[in-house]
Amino acid sequence: MSGRFLRLITIDEARRIIDANIQAIGGFEIVPLIEADGRILFEDLHAPVDLPPFNRALMDGYAVRSPDTFGATEEKGIRLKVIGEIRAGDAIEDLEVGRGEAVEVATGARIPEGADSVLMVEFADRVGEDELIVYRHVAPGENIQMRGDDIRRGENLLRRGTGIHAREIGILAALGMDQIKVLRRPRVCVISTGNELEYPGRELREGKIFDANGYMITAALLELGADASFIGVIRDSYDELRGTLESAVSGGLILSSSLVEPLQEGGISSTGSLRIWVSF
Amino acid sequence: MSGRFLRLITIDEARRIIDANIQAIGGFEIVPLIEADGRILFEDLHAPVDLPPFNRALMDGYAVRSPDTFGATEEKGIRLKVIGEIRAGDAIEDLEVGRGEAVEVATGARIPEGADSVLMVEFADRVGEDELIVYRHVAPGENIQMRGDDIRRGENLLRRGTGIHAREIGILAALGMDQIKVLRRPRVCVISTGNELEYPGRELREGKIFDANGYMITAALLELGADASFIGVIRDSYDELRGTLESAVSGGLILSSSLVEPLQEGGISSTGSLRIWVSF
Fold first, then answer.
1. pLDDT given for residue B148 in this prediction
2. Which UniProt keywords are listed (chains A, B) (predicted)?
3. Does residue B3 lie in a domain region?
């Protein structure tokens, strides 16, 4: 016990030291979209494609030319010729709806050329293989979602700095992006120091206490999105501590819980590779 | 495309079916404390030990009998005999402070028998090896944290159902608990179905769209604390779908995004082991 006073500094002064010695967290990494939850977007994202990527049926029914249905009523149906079928996911293969014609479509199917609307399946009766009686008219555009209606190609989608969560993952998946650029996470090593500290789960010998800070601070850092590791409890020994700090320092910021007396003795400045060290 | 209508049910009816067919999430598992972040406590927790586990010095200084310091001033010091030193983590080994005696203690050190207070190091001068001049009096209990002051053994600490986060991890670590009983997480398998679906990152062929629900729902479930996996995109094929569901069903709840037509054809009831299946 030396009786020397430690020099206390203000928070502002501490901030200046940190700013001068710690490089800002920078750089990006590319991660699979499915693992991006909780990460921070590195760059503005623009939609690479239209969503939906084609004009799309919103109902099960028949793709038709709407004028062909004008005048149809429950009492007086209009006959159309069914020339094909498109299910969700089908390619169209030169199918084109001409005057007096209809193509059976499923919800999500691509609308064939010529058709401008979808008549719901409930408002038509199928007669044999290729005939249809229509009992209601449809308006142009009815039951069709137009290409780019949800998101237009080139649209500014998400801004740099946005936190990625389930909603953002859904948007990016819908646009076909399976990996994204995110900010690198700060790497943080947590060390507890002190001869009095014992690991939870061990036997507590006389005069010892369990280390709480190591686990708690590591958990808090992980919650904040840091790449944090609890290095462990280090005894109050200059050599042990210096060795640990030097091997951990590749990390960047080192948080050590409790005052580190041995390093005061040995001199923090002697660890040349150590940029900053925060004790509390 | 059959034209048959599907039978819609109310939310209440759906809830009744789920309640009747899904067993409640139950049971516990024991996890290491360091991995417990985000889990839910399975049982009420009582403190297994006092915290701190012994009377503890709050300052660097000297453990003394307070009456020995009464009358000490800056002008007129009182001499005490230093009979030993206790650092943080040291066992005491029969050290007892008698009248006119003092023991050097570090912050966090166990207070020896006989002493009832700690005189801050700033208010004393060490004279040689074993003598001390005291320039201030201390009151009984001054600068000592009594055993159990933070948490008393047997105290109801955390209730069943509490979410475990950094703060709770710190409390449990301080009490020496390195593993805890938590609720089992619901296992959820996510399947997307439909011939129109393509995985993000693949080439989008005509008529196809990227699957967004699979990634998004899996991410949302993980955020909610479920043990969720995205099984993948399954084609609209009864055999393929039934095989996937049967291998996934050991999980419990299966969420499938989009309507599953092939199973309507094959009959959901034929998958004997399948308890419940939610389509949306």
1. 95
2. Molybdenum cofactor biosynthesis
3. no
Q: Are A86 and A176 in contact (CB under 8 A)?
A: no
**Is it true that the peptide bond before A186 is cis, omega within 30 degrees of 0?**
no
Last residue of a domain, one of B137, B166, B183: B183
Looking at the partner chain, which of B86, B199, B219 has a beta carbon nearest the beta carbon of A166? B219
pLDDT digits (tens, 9 = 90+) for B120-132: 999 999 998 899 9
Return d(Cα B147, Cα B72) in angstroms, integer. Answer: 28
Using one digit for the tens of pLDDT, what is the confidence trace for A132-172?
999 999 999 999 999 999 999 999 999 999 999 999 999 99
Taking each helix axis from N to C terminus, what angle separates A166-174 and B213-223, rounded to the nearest 10 degrees? 170
Instruction: Answer yes or no: are the C-beta atoms of A262 and A238 closer than 8 Å.
Output: yes
Average pLDDT of span A242-264 = 63
Q: Which chain B residues touch A86 with a CB distance below 8 Å?
A: 207
Q: Which residue has the tokens 């979808």?
A: A118
B197 φ/ψ angles, rounded to the nearest 5 degrees: -90, 135
Is A256 found in the same domain as A199? Answer: yes
Q: How far is CA A86 from CA A66, A119, A139, in A?
A: 18, 14, 21
From B235, B223, B240, select the one nearest B192 (Cα to Cα). Answer: B235
Cβ separation of B1 and A175 shorter than 8 Å? Answer: no
**The domain containing residue A133 runs over which residues?**
56-145
What pLDDT, in 10s, does the model give residues A2-34?
Answer: 444 566 788 898 888 777 776 666 789 999 999
Residue B255 lies in a domain: yes
Q: Which residues of A touch B91 (CB under 8 A)?
A: 205-207
Under 8 Å between Cβ of A139 and A79: no
**Are A190 and A62 in a shared domain?**
no
* Same-domain status, A266 and A190: yes
DSSP 3-state of B182:
strand
B170 and B36 housed in the same domain: yes
Is there a contact between B126 and A230 if contact means CB atoms under 8 Å apart? no
Q: Are residues B102 and B130 in the same domain?
A: yes
Residue B70 lies in a domain: yes
What is the mean predicted confidence (pLDDT) over A259-263? 51
Q: Name the helix (H) or strand (E) containing A30.
A: strand A28-32
DSSP type of residue B29: E
Single pTM value for the model: 0.75
Chain B hits for A214, Cβ within 8 Å: 173
Structural domain total, chain A? 3
* Residue B26 binned pLDDT confidence (cut-offs 50, 70, 90): confident
Q: Residue A2 falls within a domain, yes or no? A: no
| Domain co-membership, A192 together with A258 | yes
Distance from CA of B252 to the nearest CA of A (A): 22
